[in-house]
Amino acid sequence: MLRLKNVEVIYDDVILVLKGLSLEVPSGRIVALLGPNGAGKSTTLKAISGLLLSEEGEVTDGAIEFEGQRIDRLLPEEIVRRGVFQVMEGRRVFEDLTVDENITMGGFIRSDRAGLKRDRDLCFDYFPQLKTLRGKLAGYLSGGEQQMLAISRALMARPRCILLDEPSLGLSPKLVQEIFAIIRRINEQEKTTILLVEQNARQALAIAHFAYLMENGRVVLEGETEKVKNNEDVKEFYLGGAGEKRNYKAVKSYRRRKRWLS
Amino acid sequence: MDFFLQLALNGVVVGSIYALVALGFVIIYKSSGVLNFAQGEFLLLGAYVFWALVEGRAPWPYAVALTVLFSILLGLAMERLILRPMIGEPIISVIMVTLGLSSMLRAIVLGAWGTDTRPYPALFASEPVFLGPLPVSRGYLFSMFVAALLLASFTLFFRYSRVGIAMRATAFSQEVAQSMGISVRRIFAVSWSIAAVVSALGGILLGELRGGADGSLAILGLKTLPVVILGGLDSIQGAIVGGLIVGVLENLAGGYLDPIMGGGVKEVAPFAVLVLILMIKPYGLFGKVKIERV
Ligand SMILES: Nc1ncnc2c1ncn2[C@@H]1O[C@H](COP(=O)(O)OP(=O)(O)O)[C@@H](O)[C@H]1O
Ligand SMILES: [Mg+2]
Questions:
Q1: Which of the listed CATH numbers 1.10.3470, 4.10.400, 1.10.20, 3.90.1720 matches domain B2-123+135-280?
Q2: What are the extents of the domains in chain B?
Q3: Is A226 part of the contact surface with chain B (CB cutoff 8 Å)?
Q4: Which residues are paired to A57 by β-bridges?
Q5: Predicted ipTM?
Q6: Average pLDDT value over all residues in chain A
Q7: CA B280: distance to chain centroid?
């Protein structure tokens, strides 16, 4: 279980981004964290993984616990060793390393050779396409292949919890479906807990067990996926229409009605 | 012809030592983006520490081992005392600190050991071995062999070892490296230690070739600057090729042009070629060209 209690995050000592955020990710589940651009989703993941430190961000209040132990205040490398692995937004493969070397880096914290070899094969099992690209520089892969590589790196660390930041970003709808199907398979077969950040609410709700909706640094709605899916506002503003365009008036009316939600 | 070969061979020997020292420079630049202007002083310090140990009656293999140990500690201290407190400061400030460090280290070395040449013991028999018709001193052969061996080992280390790959990963992005559980601090510590060790070994080899340690070694260390710029700041291959080019060029220039021009060409030649090459290849011979996907 990953638990955030009233977490407050401040960047550069002045910019308050998370304003008392609470959420829970029970072991073995997929939990979706939805919300518009700038809501603070990536910040939430970086607060958990400790990567905030290198961006001049700081958890200034509240607590983050993983399996009963506080992990805010730990260094990123210690958090990875505790079993929490973040797949960063925008894939962020090591472009001038080969696919194989990228995968090796995913398993950096481990030293069980046999297990590492097995898990490398497991990656190629999930993403057969990567196998033919092993010797290629990751910078030359397509966006979809890079996302597969980014997820493979996570698999190599054998984490108990993966934090996935917008895996659908910039991918074709077909690829998005493929990647999401694999995320679900990883959750089922490897029993990995997944906290999935997405703007693509439809896809995320299709595989998640539970969902949080955040806006402006706070959770504004939470519930079982079915409940969230059927929420009128979510339908209108996150699932409605092909484009996610919302005009200002609509957002305002949403904000007005949102008060009734919680 | 023999004269040419002799000059070229000397160039290769000295060049391979430049390459070794340049490797240290490249490693620091690659992993942290810092240009270490104290590289020449690492070399100087290594050469003097070795001399002091030998002078204190340590058999030379022990002296080498202790110098290596000393350099590892020096590298760790650099990370601990200089880099870590400067985390979050602009890179340029860190570079300025290495400049300050270079004057400080030089002052310490010259203060402690003075400016006279401190002679090394002769490790090799003085009669040369013959490579075909060419007489080559044993010390030269040995130096070249050691430098080549070290260069090869480090190349393999970066190519295949987990820590070597992690160093390249950190060079690409510290943040992403951290997200894999790589400790960036530790990577920096390893790079500075490696840089200090290769410089010190370079210093010992140069001292051995020149018959002893003296203050001018730091200037030789500074030669790594044209070497690495020539090869491309972030390329290990580049450091090797650049080192050999600079070594051979300056020896040829020294042998053929200095007698005509009345000296000084030896020192200038590498820089002249450097300017020429940079006009054609602004990132150096092997400098990284950013990957652009199409
Ligand atoms: N390193 C940073 N320094 C200052 N402000 C930041 C930084 N990163 C993000 N922010 C700000 O925090 C807010 C939330 O950003 P983010 O967590 O990236 O949102 P999301 O992932 O939901 O799009 C934005 O207003 C953004 O400008
Ligand atoms: Mg984001």
A1: 1.10.3470
A2: 2-123+135-280
A3: no
A4: A11
A5: 0.89
A6: 91
A7: 25
